[in-house]
Design brief:
CATH topology of the largest domain: Rossmann fold
CATH superfamily of the largest domain: P-loop containing nucleotide triphosphate hydrolases
Radius of gyration: 27 Å
Distance between the termini: 42 Å
Strand order of the largest sheet: 3-4-5-2-6-7-1-8
Oligomer: single chain
Order of helices and strands: HHEHEHHEEEEHEHEHHHEEEHEHEHEHH
CATH architecture of the largest domain: 3-Layer(aba) Sandwich
């Protein structure tokens, strides 16, 4: 991004609501916590600093009156100074020359010309928040705090000045209890932003290298997309294992199947129609190529998707579960494509027992996901003994199990000639 002279910088600062993206501005509603969940470089710090500046100066776009006492809380004092105060998007950088506060490092505080003061606190010292009181607060990278609950609790006791104290929290998410509690709080306004949303303000090479490297992985979804990625200890799959064997390209496949777990009906309350494309290579490794699962669709819609995928990959076979729909699902497919090679499979055991042999293939490192398959992986990593994933039927996972069972555990046929 080209360098701006001071006059241009001052113009942008004065016009921040006009330059900001929508999720960098709070909604005009009665909220107590404004939580900005975002990836690295997504613009969280700038949004937090701009809101804090507006509170201190009484910007009419954000508040009715200046807030005289503000808390700035970071993981460490050094983080507060280097990111929140002196960083490229920190408080000193986003003020005009005329309005810029004075940073008194010895007292760990910013002082504005109108008398507003912002004090800096560290999550390493929760008791440092005992005593002071505030009308607003900015908490940065809360998911990294050393003592998150104790620091948060002490901060809440101090937010007691003014008519309606508010606070902004800027963080890349991690699945910690405190963050989940804040999200669940009905007084919390949530803004989500991904690293890609701020692409124009980041180095082009960053996207060519980092985004492509981490897209779809657990780390990428957390650090780039700003998602909270939970882990369960009682499931058959862990995200670390999926990431370890993930590939971004695959060898020629000797056999390919399109696996289908059809819904009973096409109503809005129906289960999804799980549709997975998978193949096996000469090296006896399986590759999960696509997840094209469809939610609450008519038979015509999912049949169309299955036939498109079959043709796209020159697949050998369609594997379809027929427990719920009997022969109806196969009949619908054959009406659309009479010569489609179809293999019916019927579940004779529970979902967990069917999934265990497939999970063992993953444990042995014999299965790779091609690129990111986040919705499928969410189902896999939340699949429990009940046979449910996040309280619902794991339709993507069911289709995956049928595909890998056919390809690796009970081959249903020989590969056909193809020109891939």
């Amino acid at each position: 991004m080209k360098l701006l002279h001071d006059g241009q910088k001052d113009h942008i600062v004065r016009r921040w609501p006009g330059y900001a993206r929508s999720h960098q501005l709070p909604e005009p509603s009665r909220w107590t916590n404004w939580l900005l969940l975002g990836g690295r470089g997504a613009g969280k710090t700038r949004a937090g600093a701009e809101w804090t500046r507006a509170m201190a100066l009484g910007d009419q776009c954000f508040c009715l009156h200046p807030v005289g006492n503000i808390a700035l809380v970071a993981e460490t004092y050094a983080d507060a100074r280097e990111v929140m105060i002196e960083g490229q998007s920190g408080l000193l950088a986003i003020h005009t020359q005329q309005d810029r506060p004075v940073w008194i490092s010895s007292r760990r505080r910013l002082e504005w010309h109108n008398g507003a003061v912002a004090q800096v606190f560290s999550s390493e010292d929760p008791d440092g928040l005992r005593g002071p009181q505030f009308g607003a607060a900015w908490s940065d990278e809360l998911a990294k705090w050393k003592n998150p609950q104790a620091t948060w609790d002490m901060l809440q006791f101090g937010l007691r000045l003014g008519h309606f104290p508010q606070q902004v929290i800027t963080t890349t998410p991690r699945p910690i209890k405190l963050l989940k509690d804040i999200i669940a709080d009905e007084r919390t306004l949530i803004s989500r932003m991904a690293t890609g949303d701020n692409r124009l303000n980041l180095a082009a090479g960053f996207f060519d290298r980092i985004i492509n490297m981490y897209r779809g992985t657990k780390l990428g979804r957390q650090e780039l997309d700003g998602e909270i990625i939970d882990e369960r200890s009682d499931t058959l799959w862990q995200r670390e294992g999926l990431d370890q064997h993930r590939v971004h390209s695959m060898p020629a496949l000797r056999r390919i199947v399109v696996a289908v777990d059809p819904p009973v009906t096409g109503k809005a309350t129906s289960d999804a129609c799980g549709i997975i494309v998978a193949g096996v290579a000469e090296n006896r490794r399986a590759y999960i190529v696509e997840d094209q699962t469809l939610q609450a669709v008519s038979p015509e819609r999912w049949v169309s998707m299955v036939t498109q995928l079959f043709d796209k990959y020159q697949a050998d076979q369609v594997v379809i579960e027929t427990n719920q729909g009997g022969d109806m699902a196969e009949s619908v497919l054959r009406n659309a494509c009479p010569h489609l090679p179809i293999r019916q499979v019927k579940a004779t055991r529970g979902k967990w027992l069917r999934a265990e042999p497939v999970a063992h293939l993953y444990e042995r490192g014999l299965v790779s996901h091609v690129g990111g398959l986040p919705q499928l992986e969410d189902e896999m990593c939340d699949f429990g003994l009940t046979g449910l994933s996040s309280g619902a039927s794991p339709d993507r996972l069911d289709a995956l199990v049928w595909a890998l069972t056919d390809l690796m555990l009970d081959p249903g046929g020989q590969p056909r000639a193809r020109t891939l």
